[in-house]
Amino acid sequence: MIGVRIYVSGIVQGVGFRYFTRKLAKELGVKGYVKNLSDGRVLAVAEGESEQIEKFISELRKGPRGAVVRDIKVEEYQPNGEHDSFVIAF
């Protein structure tokens, strides 16, 4: 089990990116949350098996139609199992 914080920049707010991320996480069995940041980026905090997380990041690089992903920064952390689903945080 690994945990990652994924910072996504580009045209990622107002284009359904958080809903795309939640749907993707549920399909892959990833737990955590996604939220918009005040600087225009989106933050996804995700926990899962290495293979799930790799696929998750790969799909986030593409984003939904209408989004333009310019950069992704990934920080790993030690997961503590606090997430039991994947939600959109506000």
Automatic annotation (TrEMBL):
Residues 3-90 form the Acylphosphatase-like domain. Keywords: Hydrolase. InterPro entries: Acylphosphatase, Acylphosphatase-like_dom, Acylphosphatase-like_dom_sf, Acylphosphatase_CS. It catalyses: an acyl phosphate + H2O = a carboxylate + phosphate + H(+). It holds the Pfam family Acylphosphatase. One of its GO terms (molecular function) is acylphosphatase activity. The active site is at 18, 36. Its EC number is 3.6.1.7. Belongs to the acylphosphatase family. This is Acylphosphatase.
